[in-house]
Each structure stands twice: as C-alpha cells, then as structure tokens.
Amino acid sequence: MKNLLIGIILFFLFSCSSNPQNTIARDQEELLIEKPKINYKLNSLPKDINVIYFSNSNIQTAFPEEVKGLLTNYYSFSKKNKYFPNIKFINLNVISSCSFVLNSDAYNFIFFLKESIDNKPYDLCLNRFTNKNVLVVSDFDDNSTLKKFRRFLVNRNEDKYELIRFMDSYSNFAMIIDNEVTNDKYEIGDFWKKEFKKEVAEYRTFNEGDYSQDIFTNLLLLEQSFKRKRKLSRLISKELSHKSRARQDIDALFLSVSTREARNLKPALDYSYNEEMEVFLANDWVGDFQFLKADKDLDGVISIEIPFMLPTPIPIELRALQNKSRNFAIGYDAFEIVLLTKGARDLSKVTYKGLTGKITFRNNDIDRKSKIFKVRNGTYEYLN
Questions:
Q1: In what order do the strands lie in the sheet with 365-369?
Q2: Domain check: are 196 and 217 in the same one?
Q3: pLDDT value at position 95?
Q4: 37 vs 76: CA distance, rounded Å
Q5: DSSP codes, 47-70
Q6: 287: left (phi over 0), alpha (psi -120 to 50) or beta
Q7: Which of 41, 111, 363, 381 is the most exposed place for a label (fewest CB within 10 A)?
Q8: CA dist list (Å): 109 to 100, 149, 358
Q9: Domain that includes residue 170, residue range
Q10: Lateral strand order in the sheet of 150-153
C-alpha cells in the first residue's frame, strides 16, 4: 500500500516529456548538482521513517512540495539499492493532538517551513521528540524548540548575507533598494556598515507601480544635472547639448527585490548611468521563479541562488519534472543528508552537490552554500 501511494504521487509529479530548459549537455557546463560516488552502508540506514509535516489539506495524498522532493529521492535510491524502509506520513495539521505513536527507533524528518506552519503553536507537540534520530528541515532560524536537534537550514537570509560578504571586495559606498515584501534595506545597511565598516549612500523602497527610470533619476541626482543645464541655457539664451552627470560616490547597487522587478531596474540603471557600477541581487524568494538560460535584462548582475533554480544539468530522475520549487529541492536534499549521515563510511570527506547548494558536514553541523554567479551576455559565470 505504501509503495502504491508513493507511485501515485510520483506519477502526478512527472510527465513523459522532459523540460527542454533542463536538457543542457552535461559536458558543456560545470556540474552544480551531483551525488557523491560512495558505497552506502545499507544496514546502517533507518528501517522506519516518520515524515512529519504541516499541510492545510485533509487529503492524504496532497503532500506539500518538500515531502514530494523527499519521496522522489527515496524512490530513486530504493530502486537502485533495494532499500525499502517503512514510511509513516504524519500531518500535524489534521491530527487533533500529539497522541500519535512514534517508533523510538524510527528516523524522524520534521519539515518546519514558514509557509506551511502559519505560526500555529506546534512547539508543544514537537518538544515531545526525545530521541536523537531527528532531522529538522527549516527555512527560518528562530524556533528555540527545534534547536536541540540536527538541522538542515535553507533560507533566504543565509544567502543574502553571503552575497553581502561577496560584495565587500567590489564596493565601499553602496545604495540599497528593497521592496514592500523584503522590507530589509536598513537591516542590510546595518550589516554592511557594522561587518565591513563600509558606507550606504542611499536607501530606497521599490513599490508596485513605481517607474524604474524615476528611481535612478532621483538617486543618482540626474535631475539636478538637467536643472543646471536648463538654467545655463536660459542665462545665455541658447540651447546647450548636454550629457547628464550622475553622482560619483556610489560604486554598487544592492537589490533586495523580486527577479521580475530586477529585470525592470537593471535596464533602467543602464539607461541612466553610463559609468561602471556593480549590481547585486538577492531575490525575494517569493514564488518559484527560475533563472532563464538567456537573461539579457539581468546582464551584468551578480546574484545568488540554489542550483536547482538555475539552468544547469540536474539528476536524470528529475528531468521530466514539470515545475521546480525551492521546497521540493529542500525535501530532496533532506533525504540525501540522512542517507549520507547514516550510510557514509567517513562523513568528513563527503561533499554533496545538492539541489540547494554545496553541502558538507562538520561534527553535528550541516553546512550549505548556494551558488554566486554573474550574468554575462546571457550566460552564467559562477564565481564561488
């Protein structure tokens, strides 16, 4: 029954035709996603697994994306290695209490993601977990109840701060633009000033309906340049040819906005400003936008993203996937992490190029690095 259920889920996940965006020849690009070539100790892998998640759906098969990602990796691994643990699915949203019975020897995946928990008081329930066979998979870092367990953390803030650190070698005086969703321009500025002793020239929020060109006209003081030209023309009663001069103290722009908004802002900056200025984008992670194979509007932008959302070769079992999502990638990598922590012979020597980034292990910590890249002539140059 369990395998039938998993088979039904995977049938709806995939179609027979592959997504052409993901069929880039493997020998033409650096492999960003690749499983380690190791021999697993199959007898050390858990025989019982509890997948604990939160979903508003009462339909048993309506799993959230993170659970679908885990099941996809499980199905692929089990076919190759004849590994068939007993899997129990526990949706805390449709269980009235914490009265479910947990096998003390089972391995517990706890998916604790912001969009699914909706600030509900699950702490009391999750605090009952006492065994050490727990992996908390989370996209935020502010839940004290779960900090006692091993955690796999994938969140935007980690990537944002990594990109700010990378900006250090490019800039001394930056301007920062956020949007109404991220609302973090001052947080970014404080980190930039405190950590690197750098300066922020301007802060601005890009609101829905703002005209991109006006933002840079104001920020770069181009209007003042036009006013000087008009004043001088009136004084000498002659129309002057004029090349606008923007302020020269800004050497970088940090965008904390959606990728769609960045596609408007970057061409507007290029039009307004003729000088060299590095542009950094920490996209807002709203929705599951995929970077395109050729993205001329973002040309010159330095950004950071999990590899799964980039146009890069992916594992063969995922090439027919209809839609990519970060939560799917999180679940897929979570299962791989348990395979490695339980089945690898020397975990300290293992590097997993996962869907969410490069994953390494240090004592009880799981380190993850997304990919920093620059869009250059529509292609991706990977920088870290």
A1: 351-354, 357-362, 365-369
A2: yes
A3: 60
A4: 15
A5: SEEEEEE--S---TT---HHHHHH
A6: left
A7: 363
A8: 15, 11, 21
A9: 157-305
A10: 86-91, 48-53, 107-112, 134-138, 150-153
Euclidean distance between the first and final Cα of the chain, in Å? 45
More confident residue, 94 or 282: 282
Same domain, 125 and 236: no
**Domain with 132 in it: what CATH number?**
3.40.50
Tell me: do 181 and 276 sit in the same domain.
Answer: yes
234 pLDDT tier (thresholds 50, 70, 90):
low
pLDDT tens digits, residue range 307-322?
A: 999 988 888 889 888 7
pLDDT digits over 130-159, tens only? 667 889 998 887 666 677 788 999 999 999
Please name the helix (run of DSSP H) or strand (run of DSSP E) that holds residue 351, with its range, or none.
strand 351-354
Determine contact, residues 359/366, Cβ cutoff 8 Å.
yes
DSSP string, 301-329: EEEEE-GGGSS----GGGTTBS---HHHH
Q: How many CB atoms lie within 10 A of CB 302?
A: 22
Report the distance separating Cα 7 and Cα 12, nearest Å.
9
**CATH number of the domain that 195 lies in?**
3.40.50.2300
Nearest partner of 327 among 117, 18, 36, judged by Cα: 117
Q: Rg of the Cα trace of the chain?
A: 24
